[in-house]
Design brief:
By secondary structure, this protein is of the alpha/beta class. It has two domains: about 80 residues, Arc Repressor Mutant, subunit A (Orthogonal Bundle); about 220 residues, 3-Layer(aba) Sandwich (D-Maltodextrin-Binding Protein, domain 2). Helix content is about 40%, strand content about 20%. Strands 3, 4, 5, 6, 7, 8, 9, 10, 11 and 12 form a ten-stranded mixed beta sheet that branches. The protein has a two-stranded antiparallel ribbon with strand order 1-2. The protein starts with 6 loop residues before the first helix and ends with a helix. About 30% of the residues are buried.
Length: about 325
């Protein structure tokens, strides 16, 4: 017996089973009846077993081997059809699942609306989200464990830099807002009134901490950072409790700082703008359509991140 049956012979046999006669199968396939008979006989020789009981004047009867082969052939051709559909979809840059890495605040504040839009559009790809910070996500993009990484960059010299290992697309700038604890009936507070207060930021070598010190140096001030955390939600909670002043990404504040239980710190007119750049990182080459659509929607979402009274912050 051959290790692999001839698929042409197998398709002819399956047509005979479905139509119940060699003549009808020949008509459906566009063969002469003798060709169908020869195909079935050749398949029986290859397998070394009788598949059909041929009785003149009556319909063909499948043997036990014939019934087993028919079921297996149905499964084979169904799988082949699914494979062809998947291959055609891949050729059209359609995929079943996209693995997306993203930092926590994007997962909680940017992506829900974006993914809802994709779902409403009936997009067939499944989006698998993975909570990961930028520095730990880049190696996963390089290795292929992630198809797309939503990243941030506080300073131009920070990673990810352009590389042969990945493609970096800027999605836009997210404003950073200096905020303090809200007070009943209180409006914005001046930066000068916050200089003697405790400040909260990332650890000493974190990008947000370096941005804070660089920005403060340009203004000629020296905020005293006594509370350190890498978690923005914890940072916001400490500010809300009146324990510190700090920089918070605008997406976490909703439409206005007051909605997050904090108040905006008014900056001097000559204060440089504060923001972080949001990036999409993927491997080089042609990207699936869903990646391009996701990048477009995230770019649009970032354009809408503009807290009220932003002129006080962004100049």
């Amino acid at each position: 017996m051959k290790s692999q049956p001839d698929l042409k012979l197998l398709a002819t046999f399956l047509a005979v089973v479905r139509h119940g006669s060699m003549a009808e199968a020949a008509t459906a396939l566009g063969y002469v009846p003798s060709a169908v008979s020869q195909h079935v006989a050749a398949l029986e020789r290859d397998l070394g077993v009788e598949l059909l009981v041929r009785r003149p004047g009556s319909r063909l009867i499948l043997t036990a081997a014939g019934r087993s082969l028919a079921r297996a052939a149905e499964t084979l051709f169904d799988a082949t059809a699914r494979f062809r559909d998947a291959a055609d979809g891949i050729a059209r840059r359609e995929i079943a699942e996209l693995r997306v890495g993203t930092y926590p605040s994007a997962m909680s504040h940017l992506l829900p609306g974006v993914l809802s839009t994709l779902k409403d559009r009936g997009h067939g790809s499944r989006i698998r989200l993975i909570d990961v910070e930028t520095d730990r996500g880049l190696p996963k993009v390089r290795s292929g464990d992630m198809d797309l990484l939503i990243a941030y960059r506080y300073l131009p010299e920070d990673p990810p830099a352009p590389s042969e290992e990945w493609t970096v697309t800027s999605l836009g700038r997210e404003p950073l807002v200096v905020v303090a604890a809200a007070e009943p009936g209180g409006g914005p507070v001046a930066l000068a009134d916050c200089l003697e207060k405790e400040w909260i930021s990332g650890h000493a070598h974190n990008a947000d901490r370096r941005l804070l010190h660089r920005w403060a140096g340009e203004l000629g001030i020296a905020p005293r950072v006594t509370l350190e955390t890498e978690d923005l939600h914890s940072m916001l909670a400490m500010i809300r409790a009146g324990l510190a002043v700090g920089l918070i990404p605008a997406t976490l504040l909703g439409g206005a700082p007051g909605e997050a239980g904090v108040r905006r710190v008014t900056l001097p007119p000559d204060a440089p703008p504060l923001h972080r750049e949001i990036l999409a990182v993927s491997r080089p080459g042609i990207r699936p359509r869903v990646v391009d659509e996701l990048v477009t929607l995230l770019t649009e979402a970032l354009r809408g991140v503009r807290p009220r009274s932003a002129r006080d912050q962004d100049g």
